[in-house]
């Protein structure tokens, strides 16, 4: 799915249509193949939310290696392919391929319905894991009338089941934090970074004296083991960094504009954070969003480049 995501996001952020033109046939071939893997608009093959945390340190991982423990491959493969169909509809529309755009819009709609009907549990009010809920919310899979309640269930899973920690792996990192802060849970999103103990960042950096993002927290303890069995520098766990810009800084491209000629400024102000400085450079110049809390007041300073508009 990465080729589709990268092509669309590159165009969305930079306004460069040439990438879409050059890659379009390759993207079509990928989407054609993906549809051969579907059954009832679900895709079961894939690696899934790789290297999510086991329940406690040194607990054997069911399935071995980085096999997901909390999110099935059906969830991640179907959700990502659903969003790929959404992006392909947009790409085809930009390129003036009206019939193809309609085809991919129909595929997107059918995949959304297939995912929701198969995986949403009306008794629990969500899709079964933090990654599943986050992807469903961020990809527009969850019906509008259920989105707040799914976000409520996601927040409850983080706060109560995982004592303030995330249970996501490599794929869920990108979507978890916005799915919380977009629905009123900015404090929960921010507090994940501060949560003490396993499997949080505190465990990695303070308890194990890590200085990088390890492939698998809980699989290696330098205080007891002679050497690691997995990578100790694995930036695929760093998908949270987009939230620093989009959430804490609030700098986000508007849905139907490209190149940040028009963009949104909508930061969240977590209770436990007193200041933020975010700077994003694009073709029009530098966008900055800086805020500081003093007592009960927040001072927010922004820079909007010439020839652009912020909302």
Automatic annotation (TrEMBL):
Pfam families: Bac_rhamnosid6H, Bac_rhamnosid_C
EC number, as in UniProt: 3.2.1.40
Catalysis: reaction(s): Hydrolysis of terminal non-reducing alpha-L-rhamnose residues in alpha-L-rhamnosides
InterPro entries: 6-hairpin_glycosidase_sf, 6hp_glycosidase-like_sf, Alpha_rhamnosid, Bac_rhamnosid6H, Bac_rhamnosid_C
Superkingdom to which the source organism belongs: Bacteria
Claim: Transcription is one of the keywords in the record: no
Domain Alpha-L-rhamnosidase six-hairpin glycosidase, first and last residues per copy: 3-247
Residue ranges occupied by any Alpha-L-rhamnosidase C-terminal domain in the UniProt entry: 250-310
Keyword annotations from UniProtKB, A to Z: Hydrolase
Protein name: alpha-L-rhamnosidase
Organism field: Paraglaciecola aquimarina
């Amino acid at each position: 799915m990465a080729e589709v995501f990268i092509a669309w996001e590159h165009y969305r952020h930079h306004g460069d249509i040439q990438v879409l033109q050059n890659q379009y046939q390759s993207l079509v071939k990928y989407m054609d193949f993906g549809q051969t893997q579907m059954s009832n608009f679900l895709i079961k093959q894939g690696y899934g939310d790789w290297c999510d945390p086991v329940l406690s340190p040194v607990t054997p991982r069911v399935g071995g290696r980085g096999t997901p423990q909390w999110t099935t491959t059906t969830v991640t493969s179907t959700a990502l392919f659903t969003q790929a169909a959404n992006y392909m509809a947009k790409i085809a529309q930009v390129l003036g391929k009206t019939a193809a755009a309609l085809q991919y819009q129909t595929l997107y709609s059918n995949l959304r319905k297939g995912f929701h009907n198969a995986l949403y549990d009306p008794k629990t009010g969500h899709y079964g894991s933090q990654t599943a809920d986050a992807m469903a919310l961020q990809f527009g899979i969850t019906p509008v009338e259920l989105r707040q309640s799914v976000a409520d269930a996601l927040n409850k899973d983080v706060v109560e089941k995982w004592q303030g920690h995330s249970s996501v792996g490599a794929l869920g990192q990108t979507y978890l934090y916005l799915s919380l802060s977009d629905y009123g849970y900015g404090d929960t999103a921010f507090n994940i970074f501060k949560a003490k103990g396993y499997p949080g960042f505190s465990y990695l950096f303070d308890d194990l004296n890590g200085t990088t993002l390890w492939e698998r927290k809980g699989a290696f303890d330098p205080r007891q083991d002679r050497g690691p069995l997995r990578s100790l520098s694995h930036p695929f766990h760093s998908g949270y960094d987009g939230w620093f810009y989009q959430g804490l800084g609030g700098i986000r491209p508007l849905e139907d504009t490209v190149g940040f000629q028009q963009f949104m400024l909508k930061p969240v102000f977590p209770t436990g954070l007193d200041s933020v400085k975010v700077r994003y450079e694009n073709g029009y110049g530098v966008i900055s969003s800086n805020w500081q809390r003093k007592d009960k007041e927040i001072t927010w300073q922004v820079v909007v480049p010439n020839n652009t508009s912020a909302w």
